[in-house]
Amino acid sequence: MKFFLFSVLAIGLGLATVDSVSSYNYYRLPTTLRPQKYYLRVLTLLENPEDLRFAGTVKILIEALQNTRNITLHSKNLTIDESQITLRQIGGEGRKENCVSSTSVNPSNDYFILNTCQELVAGNVYKLSLPFSADLSRPLTGYYRSSYKDPEANVTRWLSATQFEPALARKAFPCFDEPGYKASFVVTLGYHKNYTGLSNMPVKATKPHETLPNYIWCEFQESVPMSTYLVAYSVNQFSNKPSTLPNGALFRTWARPNAIDQCDYAAEFGPKVLQYYEELFGIKFPLPKIDQIALPDFSAGAMENWGLVTYRESTLLFSANHSSSADKQFLANVVAHELAHQWFGNLVTMNWWTDLWLNEGFATYVGSLGVNEIYPEWNSKDRRSLSSLLASFHLDALASSHPVSRPIEKVSEIEESFDTISYQKGSSVLRMMHLFLGEESFRSGLKSYLERYAYKNADQDNLWEAFTQAAHRNGALPKDYEIKTIMDSWTLQTGYPVLNVTRDYMARTAKLSQERYLRNTQLSPDLHVGCWWLPLSYTSKAEMMFMNTAPKSWMECSKAGESLSKTIQDLPSSDKWVIFNIQLASPYRVNYDNQNWKLLIETLNSEDYQSIHVINRAQLIDDVMNLAWTGEQDYETALQVTNYLQKEREILPWKPAFDQLKLLNRILRQTPNFGFFKRYMKKLLTPIYEHLNGLNDTFSSIQEQDEILLKTTVVSWACQYQVADCVPRAQEYFRRWRAEANPDENNPVPVNFRTTVYCSAIRYGTDEDWEFLWTRYKKSNVDSEKQTILTTLGCSKEVWILQRYLEMAFDSKGAIRKQDSSLCFQAVASGQVGFLLAKKYLIDNVDFIYKYYCAETKTMARFFSQISEQVISMRDLNGFKVFVNNSRQYLKDVHQAIEQTLETMLINVQWMDRNYHQLSRSIQRHL
């Protein structure tokens, strides 16, 4: 049987006859042709693990927009037999026979070019038929293989799945692989009858395969017009959990059979958020069904394929006995994000990857609205907004950052754009617009945009036009203001401003100026120049109006893009503070004169600290710590602000505090003065650790999700700094678990404490503790638990264990999946001992790692962030530069990550020279 299957598939596997390498070398396809419809037939063979393959034919209906003698499309790593290619005219004048006379390729742009026997004439429609075949991809891209262990039969089960974003459909079938070339798809999958086939649309019909016994063809309904990166299909032996969706699409959640019980939560949440979006946008979900599927191997977190959304198991599956509250909220956010894409990205798609943020920024922001609608008691919207702001502030303070709307000229640049700027900064600027426009204008602008460009492509100017019309219609914006003018200042230039507020206390005015905030203090003053349109919301101790985020005024830019001076009148008396940017409504920092900081510090360190809005308390911490980093404030002022945290009982201000203190920790733990920092951390953490009852399982009595997350986070930090009884209690929990007769079924460690308990046990424990936890990893059936264990196995201080763990992470025949190897690396690299080992491992093995990931760009980029934040000497920076220079062939497609890594290292070196002694002295004064 195996031989027969191989023989059938082997027919027509000869390589395409290639006359030459094409001279056409532009990175975008020619605009002479447009696909109308694809008929895609794919036969997938999963029977023989030694020979997992697919073969098929794609028939593309192509309209000629201009006369041309060639067809240029994308194909990558596919075998195409030129003798079986056919081309004929099926519509328009003349109806002449045609054919392909020769082909050529352009490997740098993945072009497959067919030269035609007769000229293709504008207005005519042609049918091009191309046979193709390939191995199911080992990298998790294109049409690829995945597997899992069936515990009942004790065999490995194989499945196939797709991951086409951003430009990988070309690895599965020849196509016009750019987002602007929308077409409808008729997909037909061939596979063994013991399997299930899934695609974007519902099944239309099945019939037996013509020649292969026990094989079937499964044809799916014709799709709506969509981009190639959203096409999806899978052949598997999964089970599904259907959801009830009144008067709506068929909704199913799929997983391997022994994990189907973990689908309940996603199957309940998904339909609810889908219905919310229908109401929010005023547009019904346009497909008759939607499937979401948890894949054992998946390179991204999730992918929004229209009607068949794919996920990592850890982002879709939930087990009440093994997954924490943080896992649950993360899952909800991922599902909400992907389902928001069904409108933003799928229904309306960006013209080109320059405006990727229209997909990702919108899905991130609208996803937070969806979660907030379903679970208002989580208070998650503010937490998500703050996280997005802080993440984008950190990256966008680098000179090597990039604009939200970013020019893209090659595929590796597309991959690099899937980053904090497109997602988090994109979300933050949309939130800003939502807040200054108001609910009515924001919603009507969204609806207008989606209706106008449904099943089409758009760019950000189209969005600005829709919002301007809505804003003027509703009086939300002065008639002489255009959304494009305002928002281009945020999306077309890199970085963000710091607003400098200098008060004249006698005149009760404030002079405002803005400049770009940069963490690299050695850059030319010219790089600090820039102008952003700033919505100015502010309040004072006299009025305390923190709920109104609408701007009282605007800081404008001239037509030449220069900042226009601004003076604010009628401020309160000299004994009362002012705060700008209420609830961090816009993504900019604020620096005040010394007297205003002094007034703010007095209130923060009094019993009246809660009179300042909780988001603005977070803002003050993040701003002052960053301004101290760059020398625009001093650390004495910064520590006077953070001192108040001993009283703080809300999670939002602790979030930026922990972010900033983690950066300092990673530097200071390499210095002689780390002991002072540890004592300061204990001083900050002890009151809240005791207030939250420490490492006691009091979760059942806590009503607020915020408090659960705060307790989880505080306990993690407390054990790291050995506060009170934290470490002994963690070790006791772990000992009790080890004493269980059946530890895989009975785990006495509270779910929300597991990361902290496991890490503490491994950090201060024995070799046997490590082996026990490793065994639990291998036996676990819950991916979120497996991720927790992989992260905490890196907490060891034993050099030999960490070295062995790094090697285990990159063993292709080992127990750690390739998608998780970078997680293991990061876990080791984040530790004080592990950092040096991980850095050396990367330097010594970059060629091996490059080959291990089959040169996949985005995975390679993940290795640098943990390393960059811990290099603090010029000697180590120069050493890393030498490594980069010697490894250019392996790092050529991660140019952005390397630039940002080297800049971050330089910033740390600068910090050591400028701030180390100043901070050390200030900390000692505050002990």
Automatic annotation (TrEMBL):
CDD domains: M1_APN-Q_like. Zn(2+) binds at H337, H341, E360. InterPro entries: Aminopeptidase_N-like_N, Aminopeptidase_N-like_N_sf, ERAP1-like_C_dom, M1_APN-typ, Peptidase_M1, Peptidase_M1_aminopeptidases, Peptidase_M1_dom, Peptidase_M4/M1_CTD_sf. It catalyses: Release of an N-terminal amino acid, Xaa-|-Yaa- from a peptide, amide or arylamide. Xaa is preferably Ala, but may be most amino acids including Pro (slow action). When a terminal hydrophobic residue is followed by a prolyl residue, the two may be released as an intact Xaa-Pro dipeptide. It comes from the Eukaryota. It is found in: Cell membrane; Membrane. The active site is at E338. It holds the Pfam family ERAP1_C. It is a lipid-anchor; GPI-anchor; Single-pass membrane protein. The record marks Y423 as: Transition state stabilizer. Residues 265-490 form the Peptidase M1 membrane alanine aminopeptidase domain. SUPFAM superfamilies: Leukotriene A4 hydrolase N-terminal domain, Metalloproteases ('zincins'), catalytic domain. GO terms for molecular function: alanyl aminopeptidase activity; metalloaminopeptidase activity; peptide binding; zinc ion binding. Residues 1-20 form the signal peptide. Its cofactor is Zn(2+). It is an enzyme of class 3 (hydrolase). One of its GO terms (cellular component) is extracellular space. Transmembrane segments: none annotated. GO terms for biological process: peptide catabolic process; proteolysis. Its EC number is 3.4.11.-. Keywords: Aminopeptidase, Cell membrane, Disulfide bond, Glycoprotein, GPI-anchor, Hydrolase, Lipoprotein, Membrane, Metal-binding, Metalloprotease, Protease, Signal, Transmembrane, Transmembrane helix, Zinc. Belongs to the peptidase M1 family. This is Aminopeptidase.
